Amino acid sequence: MTDSRHSGRVVLVTGAGGGIGAAIAEQYCREGAAVALVDADAAKVEEQAAQLRDAGFKVSWAHADVADYAGCAQACERLSQALGPIDTLINNAGISPKHNGAPAPIWQMTPDEWQRVVAINLNGSFNLVRILTPSMVERRFGRIVNMSSVAGSAFLPLVAAHYSATKAAIIGFTRHLAGELGPFGITANALAPGRIETPLLKTVSAEANQAVVDNTPLRRLGTPLEVARATCFLTSSESEFITGQVVDVAGGWLMR
Ligand SMILES: NC(=O)C1=CN([C@@H]2O[C@H](COP(=O)(O)OP(=O)(O)OC[C@H]3O[C@@H](n4cnc5c(N)ncnc54)[C@H](O)[C@@H]3O)[C@@H](O)[C@H]2O)C=CC1
Ligand SMILES: CC(C)c1ccc(C(=O)O)c(O)c1O
Asked: Quick one: which ligand is closest to 148's CA?
């Protein structure tokens, strides 16, 4: 789908080299936005940006770790000089570390592992919000989408406690942002994807995925494009009266 509902917008997507982030960046391009791609993996994000630029889209990219406030501030400065003031922020970068392919039991999780997941999944979203909201407040316009997960409000055996805790915290953070920033014309919403077919799920057994499918009313896993479309909707003029919400993209799985 190509339309222009985001033309004139400047969108920053974190984790834009990964499965869902790359789909989000591409969808915003297709909808007319200029897109800043940020990722800790320089090779992946450079390649993704090159593909979009070759397709004729207006993009810029930066290699940055969302947990590093100073690095993100520098990247945002450079990206907004290249593309214009960033009015739409998609906090998508996230990790879910495993122990030998399985989620770490809480009694084996090290304090360093816990802190690293908090630093990326939660503090990373704070960092970008803190860096970009001054200009949104000044311009009386902004759109923020934070990536949570169904794991933020349900027990999922595939993930560990640090992941679930940070995804729950993202929901509280989003609601607070909506309340505090609404008077300045800024909306903040969260997405809670269910199981989405990305490289991250390659390690999951077919049986485990089938169990989810069997309990999903729409009887399949989701795709990165479906998350991207929901993201674009939540920052478009069609959803301008929606803020402080958590939207599941899960085919009806769990329905908490
Ligand atoms: N795939 C799924 O089934 C679901 C994914 N999610 C969430 O969606 C988001 C994207 O997930 P996927 O695309 O599946 O994962 P992915 O692993 O394919 O992509 C994540 C991207 O974030 C980047 N990244 C990791 N740490 C970073 C850091 N410190 N700074 C900047 N970039 C960093 C990675 O390099 C990677 O490109 C995550 O927040 C994840 O928790 C939520 C629910 C389900
Ligand atoms: C991608 C993350 C780690 C993940 C993995 C699995 C599920 C699930 O079982 O549905 C998730 O919701 C996730 O967020």
From this structure: 1
Ligand 2: residue of 98, 146, 158, 227 to mutate (most ligand atoms within 8 A of CB) is 158
Q: How far apart are the C-alpha atoms of 180 and 40, rounded to whole Å?
A: 29
Residue 9: the pLDDT is: 98
Span 83-107, mean pLDDT? Answer: 96
Q: Which fold has domain 10-249?
A: Rossmann fold (3.40.50)
- Evaluate the CA torsion angle 181, 246, 226, 49 in order and state its sign: positive
d(CA 44, CA 194): 24
Write out the H or E segment, with its range, that includes residue 124.
helix 124-139
Cα 192 to middle of ligand 2, angstroms? 10
The pLDDT tens digits of the residues spanning 70-80 come to 999 999 999 99
Instruction: Give 205: exposed, middle or buried? Use CB within 10 Å, 0-12, 13-18, 19+.
Output: exposed
120 lines ligand 1 (CB under 6 A): yes
CA atoms within 13 A on the CB side of 94: 27
Catalytic residue numbers read 163
Show the beta-strand stretches assigned E in 85-223.
Answer: 88-91, 142-147, 186-193
pLDDT (0 to 100) of residue 1: 46
Q: For 33-52, what is each residue's pLDDT tens digit? A: 999 999 999 999 999 999 99
> 96-116 b/e with 16+ CB inside 10 Å = b?
beeeeeebbeeeebeeeebee
Q: What are phi and psi of 41, to 5 degrees?
A: -100, 100
Q: Residues 138-193: pLDDT tens digits?
A: 999 999 999 999 999 999 999 999 999 999 999 999 999 999 999 999 999 999 99
